[in-house]
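Here we describe the complex-level prediction in full. Unlike the single-chain runs in Section 2.1, the two entities below were treated as one system.
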Amino acid sequence: MLTDIAFWGFGLAAVLGGAAVFYVDSMARATYALALSFVAVGLQVLFLQQNYVGVVTILMMVMEMAIMAVYMVMFMGMNPALMPMSMVHGNRTAVAVAVTTFLVLATGILMVDWPARRGSPPSDVTMALGESLMGPKMLVMAVISPVMVATIVAGVVLAAHRTRYDRLGDDLKQRPADDPQPGGVGR
Amino acid sequence: MADPMPMTDSPITTVAPGWAIVGLAILGVLALTAAMLDGALAARAGGGPGGTMGGLVRPFGEAARLMRQRRRTTVEADGLLWRIGGAGLLVTAALMVTVVPLGEWTIFDLDVGVMWFNAMDVMVWALVWLTGWGANSAHSLVGGYRFLAHGLGYELPLMFALVAPAIAAESLNVGRVAAAQDGLWFAVWMPVAFLVYLLGVAAFAVWGPFSPAIGTDVAGGARAELSGVDRLVFEVGRYALLAAGAAFAVPMFLGGGAGPLLPDWAWVLVKTVALLAVLVWLRRRLPVFRPDKFMEVGWVVLLPAVLVQDLVVAVIAVGRS
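The structure predicted for the assembly as a whole is:
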C-alpha cells in the first residue's frame, strides 16, 4: 500500500516536473525542473527492482542537467538567458501536436490487449534485462562502441578551427604549444 | 507491486530506520570534529587569541555569529534554487552515509551502494552551481561555473577510482566490498585509486585545492552572498561532505571494521577520523588547482592513471577467480 502510494507519488512528481519545464520563466529553473523529473523517474525505477538502472538514471541525469544548464544559459537566450524569458514558442502548433500525441498514445494503451504474465520474474531482474537487451548482440555492441568513440573524436577534429600546425608551428616543434587556453600539464 | 530494493544477502545487518538519527548524529560529530581541527590549524598558522587551543572553539563562535547575523538579500535573487543549493550539501552528505556500514550495521544495505554514493557526489555539481546561480550576483555565478569546470576534471577519475574496489570485490554492495578485503586492504594494492578517490573527496567538499569556487579572489565565489544561517548550513554541508567522503573510504579502501582489540564499529570511527584529519590537514599543504588548468591534469594524467589501475585490478581479479 505504502509502496503503491510512493510509486504513484513519484510518477506525479515526474509529470509535474516535466510540465514545469515549460511553465517557469528561467533557463535554470527549467533545466532543474527537468532534472527533478528525471530523479523522480529514477526513484520509480528502484520500485521495479532495477536498482542499478534507477541509481544510474539519477546519476547521469543530474550530471547532464548540471552541464546542460550552462549551455542553456549560454545559448538559448537573447541576452543570454540570465534574464527571465518564456520557455515556449509556436504555442498553437505545439498544443495541437501534444494533444494529438496524447490521444493517440492513450487510445493505444486502452485498445491494446495487454498480455498476462507468464512465469515469474528472475531473481536478478537487472541481469535479465541486460541479457535480453544485449545478449545475442554483444559482439555488435562491443564493435560499435569503439567505432562511435572514433566517430566523435574524428568529428571534433574535423570541426575544430585550430589544427596541430596552429598549436605546434609549421614544423610541429614549438613547445609549449600555442593554445588560447593553456592547460596544467604544459603540453 | 513489489517492495522496492530488496535487501541482499550481505554480511551486514540492516538496522531499523529510527537509527538514521544516530547516523546523522555521528555525521554531525564528525563534521564538528573536522571544523574544530581546521580551526586549530588555522589558529596555529595565523595566530590570534587563545593560540592553537583557542582555535578549537572557533567553529562555535563562528556558528553563534552566523546565527545572529541578518540575512543579506539581493535584487531579483532566485530564492528557491538558492536555498535548495545551500541546504542540499548537508542533505547529500546525510544520504551518502546511509550506505556506509558502521561495523556490522547499516541503515540502507543497497545492492548498488557504490553507485548510490557516486550519484550523491554528482548531486554536488548541481547544488554548488545552484548556490552560485541563485544569488543573482556576478561573483557567485563565477564561483558556480568554476566548480563545474573542476567537476569536469575530477568526476571521471573519481568514478573510475570507485570502480577498482568494486571489480576486486565483484560487488557494488559496500558491505561486500569491505568484507572482500580480508587481510589486505584495497588502499595497499590499489594506491592510485585510493589517492584519486581522496582527491575526489576534497573536490566534492569544495575543499583545499578545489576551493577556487569559493575563493577570496572572487569575493567568496558561490557563497559570496550567503549570510547568516544560510551560510552556516552551507559550511556545515561542506564539512559533512568531507566527513562522508572519509567515512565511505573506510569500507572501500581501508578494510571496513577490520582491526585488533577494538570492536568493528570503533575501528570504522577511528579510521574515519584519521582520514578526515588528513584531509583537513591537506588544506594548508596543497596549492589551489586553477579550474582551467586542472581540466588537463584530470584528463591527461589522472584519468589514464586510474584506468591503468582498473586494468591491473581487473587482471588480478580474473587471475584469482
